[in-house]
Design a protein that fits this description.
The protein is mainly alpha-helical. Helices cover 45% and strands 2% of the residues. This is DUF551 domain-containing protein.
């Protein structure tokens, strides 16, 4: 588990979810195997955790924006993308950002005082994703700088909204 990531909830009963060995490894094997065919579970689990954090952050930014205009503009842009490409395609696009987020996290993890899932990932999305083309949200070549004037930026959001965290009753 990444440092700074909130603790995982208690595991459901074994009857509710099949064991890890029951999942079809054939679907993920080409991406998760090394040259000798051995599974790199630490890398795979890290990438899966990052991908889920990304998707959760996109949904939170879309469905629970802060009340400031930049956060609302971002929520509307994400909704427009969902309408243009569909949720399944957007989810696959977001999964494609996993490597970039892990690279960015590895550069700052030792000195980052906040948590990975509720602070770093949403902030990375806000600073690095260009939602201006609803059919093709992309990683910006240069991230937006926080504390800049939103009118000077091409993207819908210029700074991290102050209330990105979900309500406390979500338990994360």
């Amino acid at each position: 588990m990444k440092a700074g990531v909130n603790q995982r909830p208690a595991q459901p009963s074994p009857e509710a979810i099949p064991s890890h060995s029951d999942f079809g490894k054939g679907e993920i094997a080409p991406a998760a195997e090394n040259q000798n065919g051995a599974m790199r579970t630490d890398t795979l689990e890290s990438a899966l955790e990052t991908a889920t954090c990304l998707w959760e952050a996109v949904l939170t930014l879309r469905d629970h924006p802060a009340t400031d205009p930049d956060a609302i503009a971002l929520a509307l842009a994400i909704r427009e993308t969902c309408n243009a490409v569909g949720t399944a395609d957007l989810r696959l696009t977001v999964v494609g950002w996993t490597g970039a987020v892990e690279t960015a996290w590895s550069a700052v993890a030792d000195g980052y005082d906040l948590c990975f899932d509720w602070d770093f990932v949403p902030g990375w999305i806000i600073e690095h994703i260009d939602w201006s083309d609803p059919a093709h949200p992309t990683i910006r070549p240069e991230p937006l700088r926080q504390h800049t004037d939103s009118a000077a930026n091409a993207g819908p959001v210029a700074a991290l909204p102050p209330s990105l965290r979900p309500p406390a009753d979500e338990g994360n």
